[in-house]
Amino acid sequence: MKSRTAVLALGLTQIIGYGTLYYSFSVLAPAMAREFGLSTEWIFGALSVSLLVGGLCAPWVGGWIDRRGAGRVMTIGSLTAAAALTACALAESTTTLVLGLIAIQIASTLVQYSASFTLLVQLNPTKAQRSITYLTLMAGFSSTLFWPFTTALHTRLDWHQVYLLFALMHLFICLPVHGWLMVQTRAISDRRAPLDQAPRSTAAVAGVVDGAARPRAFALMLVGFAIQSFVTSTFLVHMLPMLTGLGLAKASVLVASVFGPAQVLSRFTNMTFGGRLSQRTLAIIASGFLPLATAILLATAPSLAGAFAFAIVFGLSSGLSSIVQGTLPLELFGSEGYGKRLGRLTSVRLVVSSAAPFAFALMTERFGYPISLSLIAVLSTFAVLAFLAIGGPARPGVETPRAE
């Protein structure tokens, strides 16, 4: 099977996966809160708890993917996602609603980026970096499509019915696609390895970091991505109230709307020109955009032009980060054990992301937006330093096939 075919198939399921399991929640949450007599803050707190549980499950899921193959895990994930959405839709109490939200985030770890990136690595390690770039370009349209799509559905259906419809999408679209990918990857692995081994490739990629230096490099990578996730999650959740608090109330929605297109632009630019740079260099650039974006906002508020510049630079950072979170571990450490390694990375990112909005809310309540954003700018600079400290090639490493 060609990598391009797998990317197109995964692009469809990633758009549906992120749209139904993540982006739709912000549209439906107010209705959930009203029905159960809860505050919107309480509902989003439940989302944070579910993200935390999903993050804690991610390393285990990553190891399972390495042992059993990403195609099989994603197929099971489609069934799990359909069941979780149905359970949430049928919730009749606060407890069952929270359990349903937790189940949705556990299902997310089975079908979203970590699993799909690993599937591309298992299919063809030597072309995986390019394939991941194409995939994130396609999946970047998920929020652009599903925010208005969910809103339109919600004008005709209640949130229970919307979630039931989304469950059907996982059963009748994502499940067949993931099942087909499972068959394809199993056929490839059967030709390449004994039947009692996990899917392996005859063209495995060796990482550029030597064995003795790997623990330090991995720790620095975790720190860099954890800081990125903290800042990105903070801005995504607090974008509108933050801009309003800085005197941009009337333009806040308009300014925030350029974030999505900026993400896609950064991914397209990387797809076109990024082959000349190593993934570590791209990680440094992506993390460098965060303190730059924060500094622009601080220096120009309440200027509308400055706010637009902030949203664009932040979108560029987010778009690049989503790529290098999959490609940097492959470049540094190779394709062996990639799924487990990415699972550990995803776990740290999700745990940090679940705490970031609450932490920033406390910061702004105590110090106000200018001081809080200054602290964010300083914190995000440490992500740049972490990626710089990893070391490694200034140019893309050569992906040399290695016999198994």
What does this structure look like?
- This protein is mainly α and 404 residues long.
- It has 2 domains: 3-204, MFS general substrate transporter like domains (Growth Hormone, Chain: A, Up-down Bundle), CATH 1.20.1250.20; 211-396, Growth Hormone, Chain: A (Up-down Bundle).
- 81% of the residues lie in helices and 1% in strands.
- Strands 1-2 form a two-stranded antiparallel ribbon.
- The longest helix is centred in the N-terminal third of the chain and has 34 residues, at 3-36.
* Morphology call: globular
* Rg for CA atoms: 21 Å
- Sheet bearing the most strands, described? 2 strands, antiparallel
Find the count of extended strands (DSSP E, 2+ residues): 2
Q: What's the order of the H and E elements?
A: HHHHHHHHEHHHHHHHE
C-alpha end-to-end distance:
21 Å
Q: What is the CATH H-level superfamily of the largest domain? A: MFS general substrate transporter like domains
Q: What's the CATH C level of the largest domain? A: Mainly Alpha
**How many distinct helices?**
15
At the fold tier of CATH, the topology name of the largest domain is Growth Hormone, Chain: A
User: What share of the residues lie within helices?
Assistant: over 70%
Strand order of the largest sheet: 1-2
Structural class: mainly alpha
